[in-house]
């Protein structure tokens, strides 16, 4: 059973306009994401307009992207096949602000290059993390097409070193899953997110 909780923050991305933040006003449930009924949402968008786009949907199954329509305060999932769950919500997780530095591998098509980055991990779980970071220089954004990142994160117990595969990237945010994590850090991280560290 898929559940979208009341108070969940959703984001609708439509061509040619800024992303539209939405707040789900009531809990909705269905056996599958494609079967979710229209969800009542609070939006800053003008009433009466119809918007089509890609919805970032946070549910009990994780975070996924699906086609959706926003109309008269209701968001409706369209189509049968979601784009896939990218972060499992059943992984223990812990928000915070943990300083991080590292090296990002950027895919340039015909070649790859390495770029130094620095910032903060804002959410960490046993399966991955959310990083807000920038490169050296004047750009407030990360370079596009980051494939993986080697990170050194200052955690309360010490340094966490891990290789992270990019799941989603926009502006200065990168969401990724752990490709490799040093064994000592893996045990300490599991204890930390479970509240024992």
Topology of this protein?
Elements: E1 2-4, E2 9-13, E3 20-24, E4 28-30, E5 39-43, E6 50-59, E7 62-71, E8 74-77, E9 93-107, E10 112-125, E11 128-135, E12 146-155, E13 158-170, E14 173-181, H1 183-193
Antiparallel strand pairs: 1-4, 2-3, 2-6, 3-5, 5-8, 6-7, 7-8, 9-10, 9-12, 10-11, 11-14, 12-13, 13-14
Organism: Actinoplanes regularis
Domain PilZ: 87-194
GO molecular function: cyclic-di-GMP binding
- CATH level-4 homologous superfamily of the largest domain: predicted glycosyltransferase like domains
Order of helices and strands: EEEEEEEEEEEEEEH
Low-pLDDT ranges: 80-90
Report helical residue fraction: under 10%
Number of helices, counting only DSSP H or I runs of 4 residues or more: 1
CATH arch. level architecture of the largest domain? Beta Barrel
| Number of separate strands | 14
* Amino-to-carboxy terminus distance: 32 Å
Alpha-beta classification: mainly beta
Strand arrangement, major sheet: 2-3-5-8-7-6
* Fraction in beta strands: over 45%
InterPro entries: PilZ_domain (IPR009875)
Organism: Actinoplanes regularis
Domain PilZ: 87-194
Protein name: PilZ domain-containing protein
Give a structural overview.
This protein has one helix at 183-193, and strands at residues 2-4, 9-13, 20-24, 28-30, 39-43, 50-59, 62-71, 74-77, 93-107, 112-125, 128-135, 146-155, 158-170, 173-181. The protein is mostly beta strands and 197 residues long. It has 2 domains: 8-77, no CATH class; 93-194, predicted glycosyltransferase like domains (Thrombin, subunit H), CATH 2.40.10. The chain is globular. InterPro entries: PilZ_domain. Pfam families: PilZ. Residues 87-194 form the PilZ domain.
């Amino acid at each position: 059973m898929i559940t979208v909780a009341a108070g969940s923050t959703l984001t609708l991305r439509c061509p040619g306009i800024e992303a539209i933040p939405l707040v789900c006003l009531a809990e909705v449930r269905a056996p599958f994401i494609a079967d979710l009924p229209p969800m009542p949402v609070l939006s800053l968008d003008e009433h009466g307009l119809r918007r089509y786009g890609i919805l970032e949907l946070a549910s009990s199954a994780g975070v996924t992207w699906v086609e959706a329509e926003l109309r008269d305060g209701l968001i409706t999932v369209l189509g049968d096949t979601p784009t896939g769950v990218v972060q499992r919500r059943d992984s223990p997780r812990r928000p915070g602000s943990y300083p991080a530095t590292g090296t990002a591998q950027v895919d340039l098509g015909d070649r790859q290059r390495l770029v130094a980055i620095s910032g903060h991990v804002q959410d960490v779980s046993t399966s991955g993390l959310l990083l807000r970071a920038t490169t050296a220089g004047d750009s407030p954004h990360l370079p596009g097409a980051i494939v993986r990142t080697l990170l050194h994160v200052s955690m309360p117990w010490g340094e966490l070193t891990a290789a992270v595969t990019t799941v989603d990237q926009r502006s200065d945010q990168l969401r990724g899953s752990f490709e490799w994590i040093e064994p000592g850090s893996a045990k300490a991280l599991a204890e930390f997110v479970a509240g024992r560290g």
